[in-house]
Each structure stands twice: as C-alpha cells, then as structure tokens.
Amino acid sequence: MAEDEARGICVRDVAAKDFIAAYAEHLKNSDKFELPVWAEQVKTGVFKELAPYGDDWYYIRAASIARKVYLRPGLGVGQLQKWYGGSYRRGTRTEHFRKANSGIIRSVLIQLEGMKVTEQLPGGGRRMTRVGQQDLDRIAGTVFRASEEEEE
C-alpha cells in the first residue's frame, strides 16, 4: 500500500468527469476567477440555439480547458475551438461543422493566465506553469482518494 501512495497522482489518473467537476468547484470558490458579465447571454457556438442552462457552465468550461491544456501543451484557441465545436443543423439542408465561440475560450485562458495556471508559449499556444500543474495534480489527488474511499 505504501508503494501506491509514494507515486504522485496526476490528472491522467482520474476520470475526466470527476476531475472537471472538482476543478470547476475549486474555480468557483476561488476569488481570482470571476464570472464575466456577459456569461448569461452568450451562446457557446454558432451551431447552438440557446445559451447553456446551468449556472456553473463557465466554470465547467474553464476546468475542461485547463485539463485540455494540461494534457496537450502548446494547445491554442483555434484547436480548442475545433474541440468544442459541433454540427450546425440547418433544417432540411445538410449539416456542417462549426467551430465554438473563441471569445469564451480566450477569456478563460486569459483568466487562467492571470491566476498563473497557464502561460503563453513563444511560438503560440498555451502550457501549464509549474504552479498550475501542482494545483491540478493536487485536485486530481483529492478526486482519486475520494473515488477510492467510495469503492471501499
């Protein structure tokens, strides 16, 4: 048992859904991460008809973006737009792929940069700072231990 505890738990070791929920809660309780004033009216993409229903959707998206940047350093706004994009259903005409809203992604990345979680790369894209990586690993550790306790 001591051998398992010596190994550090990172974001890859926990389920995405559980980690994103825990990190979103952490961001919500953080005083450095703020909900923008436009968050209630904005859609997440051209292909959506309505804005998200949940009150915490911005924090959940931010946690998801932070996880993506952790797993793939060098990720930029364009790649994230593609990841969060979806099918634009045009009635009887054929559907086409549309990218997600870049303003939301950019505002999240700017706020994470302000919190010293991510940093810009000289060639473009973002990566985790050492502080950000430790922060995410710590939250992943708590999620991992909570899931272990549930199993027992």
From TrEMBL:
> Which terms does the UniProt entry file under GO BP?
ribosomal small subunit assembly; translation
Keyword Chloroplast, does the record have it?
no
* Signal sequence range: none
Q: Which Pfam families match?
A: Ribosomal_S19e
Q: Name one GO molecular function term.
A: RNA binding
Q: Cite a GO CC annotation.
A: cytosolic small ribosomal subunit
Do you know which SMART domains this protein is assigned to? Ribosomal_S19e
Which keywords fit this entry according to its UniProt record? Ribonucleoprotein, Ribosomal protein
**Similarity field:** Belongs to the eukaryotic ribosomal protein eS19 family.
Q: What is this protein called?
A: Small ribosomal subunit protein eS19
Q: What is the lineage of its organism?
A: Eukaryota, Sar, Stramenopiles, Ochrophyta, Bacillariophyta
